[in-house]
Amino acid sequence: xxxxxxxxxxxxxxxxxxxxxxxxxxxxxxxxxxxxxxxxxxxxxxxxxxxxxxxxxxxxxxxxxxxxxxxxxxxxxxxxxxxxxxxxxxxxxxxxxxxxxxxxxxxxxxxxxxxxxxxxxxxxxxxxxxxxxxxxxxxxxxxxxxxxxxx
Length: 151
What we know:
Order of helices and strands: HEEHEEEEEH
Strand content: 25-35%
Shape: elongated
Number of domains: 2
Distance between the termini: 12 Å
Keywords: Signal
CATH topology of the largest domain: CD59
Structural class: alpha+beta
Largest sheet: 5 strands, antiparallel
Radius of gyration: 21 Å
Strand order of the largest sheet: 2-5-4-7-6
Helix content: 25-40%
Signal peptide: 1-23
InterPro entries: Snake_toxin-like_sf (IPR045860)
């Protein structure tokens, strides 16, 4: 009975740790209307196994400012981090950020890709997998060795 309980505890802890190992929470929605709640009041969010939360906003140039596409999502490799692309027919805003629920707002304002505004130019910032990313491996091995020691 003791071995069964240890194995059950091991798998329960393993599954519980997986939730914390990956998880950038981002708003996720899409719209083709300027009055959509996706633009004005996003509510749907999801835990993503991606590096960035993003906003894509595309407007017509004529009539100016008419939204024809708006997306909130998560992505590993966004096409642009914080850029506005002007063409004769469209103006497209690309926004990307790296903290939970950071892809809020209407898409006009740039996001800080870095966790702090005080950026040291001697440090190279490499986005990771979100919060608690480095805790699963040590915890997994501690639990695994503990369970094996009971056999």
